[in-house]
Amino acid sequence: MSLSDAEYRIEDLAHRSGATVRTIRAYQDKGLLPKPERRGRANVYDDSHLARLRQIADLLDRGYTLASIKELLQAWDEGRGLGGVLGLVAEVEGPWTDEESGRMTRAELDELFTGEQNDTAVAEAVSLGVLVPLPDRPGEFLVPSPQELAVAAELHKAGVPLLAITDHLRELRGQMEHIAARFLDFTNEHVFIRYLGTRPSDSDASEAADLVRRLRPLAQQTVEAELARAMSKLAARNLRDHLRSAAAAPPPDPAGPRAEAVPLPSGTVESVRTLVGEDRTPAFIAAATEREVQARTMDRLTAEGSGGEPGRH
User: Which three-class secondary structure state does DSSP give residue 228?
Assistant: First the structure.
């Protein structure tokens, strides 16, 4: 520490930087802030600590995570400069879609889903990040992807239960993360291999950021094209299977719906088969049944006409 440097106790540093004492200590524990100079029983900070706290605050405002900030500050400390590295991180951590987020109240959400109030489904959507509660506005949500929510609403209107939609999204998300990982492995192997495992210079980081910017839309375009091809192929196959099943189904009985089959004792069926033969067994059983029904009907009508009890003679 030079004689020209200002000196601060932690409370003074907190006041000058706008950070809390607790935050400053947390940054030290995480390796984001150099440890202070120890003087007797007191810790002494200087202007370099103040500058570092202001750098961290600026990067947090720009949307960087603490883990990313630590890597960036390490690059700065190693004299590699932050310009190219910041550009690379901005490209990688920035939004990978042009879609703009929206906001929605719980009442608007219920109305979108045909008035159904399902707290369990809302909790599932929150856990998936489809809805993000706004702490300062109870009953209101940030919607990172209004398109995704609109798809869910259309599926629900078509008859899909809400929890089935969230279960499907969870499964789909795992599959899409697998695709994303494969795409990254592919580009790392063939495009970014020269930057991996080394400390990139400022120009290297800028060059890599430009590559990310150029390749970013390719992932989405490839998935869209392949999804369209797969849907065309599988949807047509699915329709053909349904049409074949429908063609193979027996035509509807003009007399109305058929009665449910009633199992007969195997001994009875075998006796009929011995009597009339295999081919005539179904017709014989049907005729015998019809004959019995007609006989009982005649008995009932005769009994009603004579005022007596129906019976068999």
Answer: helix
Residue 132: its H or E element: strand 132-133
Predicted confidence (pLDDT) per residue in 225-274, tens digit: 999 999 999 998 888 888 888 777 777 666 655 556 667 777 777 777 78
- Between the alpha carbon of residue 278 and those of residues 7, 42, 274, the distances in Å are 107, 105, 8
CA 125 to chain centre: 9
- Residue 163's SS3 state is helix
Summary count for the chain: helices (H), strands (E): 12, 5
- By DSSP bridging, strand 37-39 and strand 42-44 are antiparallel
| Total number of residues shown for the chain | 313
In whole angstroms, give the CA distance from residue 78 to residue 195.
17
| Cα(296)–Cα(304) distance, integer angstroms | 12
pLDDT tens-digit series, residues 90-100 = 677 667 888 88
d(CA 88, CA 204): 10
- Given a contact cutoff of 8 angstroms between Cβ atoms, the answer to whether 60 and 69 are in contact is yes
SS3 label, residue 284: helix
DSSP assignment letter at 79 = T
Report DSSP state, residue 313. Answer: -
Strands 140-143 and 102-105: antiparallel
The secondary structure element, H or E, covering residue 112 is helix 106-112
